[in-house]
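Feature request, filed as a ticket because there's no other form

It would be nice if the structure record came with a short human-readable summary line next to the tokens. Right now we just get the raw output. Example of a typical job, pasted below so the devs can see what we mean:
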Amino acid sequence: MAAHPSETRRLIPYIPREYNTFADASESMENPPTTMSQAQLVNGPHPGRKLPQYLAAMAATLGALAAGAMLGWSSPAEPRLTNGEYGFPVSKDQNAWIGSLTTLGAACVCIPIGILMDKIGRKLAMLLLVLPFTLGWLLIILATNVDMLYAGRFFIGVAGGAFCVTAPTYTSEIAQDDIRGALGSMFQLMITIGILFTYVVGSYVEVYIMSILCLAIPIIFGIVFFFMPETPYFLVNCGKIEEAKKSLIWLRGAEYDSDTELSQIKEKVEESRNNPVSFKQAFSKRSAILAFVICMSLMLFQQFSGINAVIFNVTTIFKSASDAIPEDIATIIIGVVQVVATFLSTLIVDKLGRRVLLLLSAIVMAICDILLGVFFYLKETNGADDETVQSISWLPLASLIIFIAAFSLGFGPIPWLVSGELCTPNIKAFVSSTAGTFNWLLAFVVTRTFVSMQSGLGEGGAFWLFAGFTVVGVVFVFFVIPETKGKSIDEIQNILNRENK
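Raw output as currently delivered:
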């Protein structure tokens, strides 16, 4: 998330055009579609309005803004809690729990929220998440002891983690294929804006006031998102055809050929009902196994790049690195870079492709982790007043800026997007829930053990460990990950099957 589940995640986007299409490539060739593809609709005389889709996606990803605030809160809050700002003592170990419990809460909810949104709908499931967010922030705002902080962080973790599943699902199901990548990347962008929000606000106000402002975000989301439509796919799946048509008209405009797209969605739903595929049958294909391995591996490399260790502890890292730049200012700079780089990713992900950005991102992150390790090793070995250490006091800020920029361009948003594109609809729900749970559990491990890593390996050794995982990630992406840009689910499955032979 930021890699967080940022990144995070969160979570795995569905692909509405292909949803519930179980035929493999050969079956598709033998039974060509009798209706126009969505690409033909998009390129027709009335291709559909994009602005309503962007507005609906923006409304949905206000939940990601709330999740970003949840993730960024720890960095400015941790030193102030340790200094007794709340009126009760908070130890360094307790602070580690306060920071990491959100990720544990998020890990617990990924599978249940997937079931819930299939039962009651994407929209209602997302609106209900305002409740645990509100409860969590109220516990933090009114905390009189550490246990209330623990409980509050856990509850907002549950809400934030659920948004990381529901918001990308909603966004991908309302999007036309030609803007699927851009809308999918908006989720990560809003997470980074939420992180920046807490970095800025936390630099100037007390933790209590910052928490009140964080509480306002999910409430605003609830008000705005209430007026957005349910996804056409879910409505068709529930037999609400007229409501699905109204949703398509809202999203695409009155002049768009909504009847044809509605017919396509109905065919997909009917096909999935008439030709059910068991879970065991779905995973008997080599392409499904490879897709699952790729999804889990990308989550592993995303989290063990060290991103959440940085996001949760960026203020503390700068405080221990150098006094050249005040840690609050350096933290804000990092947040701004993250937002700008993520926004840039939304513009180029459908142009340069997923694989190129993943490779570039991982290579640069590995170099930055190595440089951070060198700086902290020299500081620990020679002392903070050493001439060499003083001469490279700029290195932590420069390395972290480049690290965050590289992560936000590639390994932040793209693993979620690629994972959704690799999976056929009959395994997508399972893979998305499993990947989300795995990602948040990894985030919990990294954030909870970062202080122990620093103690056991030294600050330099901790970053070198992250660098090692990232280098392995580079090799994995180069040899295993296929390019999915602009490809249909059938084309992607063909590629996966060929790469397994």
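Something like this underneath would help us a lot:
The two ends are 33 Å apart (CA to CA).
DSSP finds 24 helices and no strands in the chain.
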